[in-house]
Amino acid sequence: MSEDSEDQVEKPVLYARLNDDTLRAKWPGKRWHGRYKDIYEVCDAAHADGLASFIIDYVDKED
Description:
- The protein is α+β, with helices and mostly antiparallel strands.
- The chain is built from two helices and four strands; from the N terminus they run H-E-E-E-H-E.
- It has one domain (13-59).
- The chain has helices at residues 3-9, 39-48, and strands at 13-19, 22-26, 33-36, 55-59.
- The protein has a four-stranded mixed β-sheet, covered by helices on one side.
- A hairpin with a 2-residue loop joins strand 1 (13-19) and strand 2 (22-26).
- The longest helix is centred in the last third of the chain and has 10 residues, at 39-48.
- The protein starts with a helix and ends with a strand.
């Protein structure tokens, strides 16, 4: 495991999913919510909610 990977093990995960033109997200302490315009707005909301750093799991297309 690389040093970067070890640092990320402890970080919470921010999940974001794009459905048509709606970006919804969830992170620890939040259920799926929001109608964000882009991933930057999601990250700003997570920071405002007290999440200092996190790993982003962002899906813009489902197979």
